[in-house]
């Protein structure tokens, strides 16, 4: 029997590539429009024979998080989940590993547009452009009195929290604006990867940066990584930019740090409880806000869809994914080294 590929969400740009999967598999969509009905549909067997799921970030509005409950409810035939997005915090990878389901994401495809968005927010927050952009639209030109002068990026220290694909892309762009780059990762990078950026401990990055950019994934270790204690360690008047995931920052603590002047200005593309935004952020004129637009360009959305489809194709043709998420890629290395568990893919994630 031909396997099925289940589409959760929509393919809007790479439709030709999507349709080219038809000879390999039956492309199906769920009837359900909410989580309860979707779980029901899975349990009734309507989606049996689905081997691969293609899902989008927005499909969470229908299914809710791909947490243990949902992963357990999926048909036993599901072996691959191809997520269209770099951040895959909507998926419980551990639950997937325990069920032998492999997960892919779209690294690299998002690097340029997300780093561009971070650069836009860095410049906007440094120059405090949110205030005059508002007064102009209100018919008040620069406002009365005019806003305080902003700051130039040249010569400022940019602390990149998470020098991965997006962080490194941002580094090159920020260097073109004359910024000095320091970074913190769990482990110091080799020189070719760091590209001259100086490694700093977490505490040192907090203390030395004029601007801090968040470029780490959200997981149990990084949730609220920046809260009251961390804001206290930062320079007075620090600028903060987040294009990663909102919950890396404790939004309540951020509002307090803005109100006290510890943080002078902020650029945000992501929030703790999207689409809800802390009222203290909306009310503060020193905050530039975007509604999660980091990858919102024709080129990047197309590249992300193409990458996700390439993973679906690889699953169908080769039985493996091209962009396995790091947690599972690490387990694969362990498996290849002979640490394969009796039960196949069930490998402790602590190996990472
Ligand atoms: O937020 C965007 C992504 O995770 O790709």
Quick description:
This is Glyoxylate reductase. By secondary structure, the chain is of the alpha/beta class.
Characterization of this structure:
Residues 63-325 form the D-isomer specific 2-hydroxyacid dehydrogenase catalytic domain. Keywords: NAD, Oxidoreductase. GO terms for molecular function: glyoxylate reductase (NADPH) activity; hydroxypyruvate reductase [NAD(P)H] activity; NAD binding. It is a single chain. By secondary structure, this protein is of the alpha/beta class. The chain has two domains: 4-109 and 299-351, NAD(P)-binding Rossmann-like Domain (Rossmann fold, 3-Layer(aba) Sandwich), CATH 3.40.50; 111-289, NAD(P)-binding Rossmann-like Domain (Rossmann fold, 3-Layer(aba) Sandwich), CATH 3.40.50.720. Helix content is 38%, strand content 15%. It has helices at 15-19, 35-44, 60-63, 68-73, 93-98, 111-126, 130-137, 165-176, 191-194, 202-208, 228-233, 251-260, 279-283, 298-318, 326-339, and strands spanning 4-8, 26-28, 50-56, 80-84, 102-104, 157-161, 180-184, 198-199, 211-214, 238-242, 263-268, 287-289. Strands 8-7-6-9-10-11-12 form a seven-stranded parallel sheet, with helices on both faces. Strands 2-1-3-4-5 form a five-stranded parallel sheet. Helix 6 (111-126) packs across helix 8 (165-176). The protein is elongated and about 70 Å long. Mean pLDDT is 94; it is low at 338-352. Residues 85-87, 110, 294-295 line the site of glyoxylic acid.
């Amino acid at each position: 029997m031909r396997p099925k590929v289940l589409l959760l969400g929509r393919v809007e740009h790479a439709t030709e590539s999507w349709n080219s999967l038809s000879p390999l598999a039956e492309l199906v969509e769920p009837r359900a429009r909410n989580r309860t009905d979707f779980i029901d549909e899975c349990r009734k067997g309507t989606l049996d024979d689905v081997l691969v799921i293609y899902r989008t970030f927005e499909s969470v509005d229908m299914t809710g998080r791909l947490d243990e409950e949902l992963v357990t409810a999926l048909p036993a035939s599901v072996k691959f989940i191809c997520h269209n997005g770099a951040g895959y915090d909507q998926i419980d990878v551990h639950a997937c590993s325990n069920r032998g389901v492999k997960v892919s994401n779209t690294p690299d495809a998002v690097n340029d547009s997300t780093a561009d968005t971070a650069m836009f927010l860095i410049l906007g927050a440094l120059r405090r452009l949110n205030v005059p952009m508002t007064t102009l639209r209100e018919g008040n030109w620069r406002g009365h009195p005019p806003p305080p002068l902003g700051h130039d990026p040249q010569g400022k220290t940019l602390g990149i929290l998470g020098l991965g694909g997006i962080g490194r892309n941002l580094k090159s762009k920020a260097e073109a604006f004359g910024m000095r780059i320091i970074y913190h990762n769990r482990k110091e990078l080799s020189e070719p990867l760091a590209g001259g950026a100086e490694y700093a401990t977490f505490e040192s990055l907090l203390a030395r940066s004029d601007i801090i950019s968040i470029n780490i994934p959200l997981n149990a270790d990084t949730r609220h990584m920046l809260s009251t204690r961390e804001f206290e360690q930062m320079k007075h008047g620090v600028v903060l930019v987040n294009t990663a995931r909102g919950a890396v920052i404790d939004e309540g603590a951020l509002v307090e740090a803005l109100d006290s002047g510890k943080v002078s200005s902020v650029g945000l593309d992501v929030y703790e409880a999207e689409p809800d935004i802390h009222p203290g952020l909306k009310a503060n004129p020193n905050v530039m806000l975007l509604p999660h637009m980091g990858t919102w360009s024709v080129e990047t959305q197309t590249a992300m869809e193409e990458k996700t489809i390439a993973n679906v194709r690889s699953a169908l043709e080769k039985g493996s994914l091209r962009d396995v998420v790091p947690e599972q890629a690490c387990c694969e290395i362990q498996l290849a080294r002979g640490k394969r568990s009796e039960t196949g893919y069930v490998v402790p994630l602590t190996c990472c």
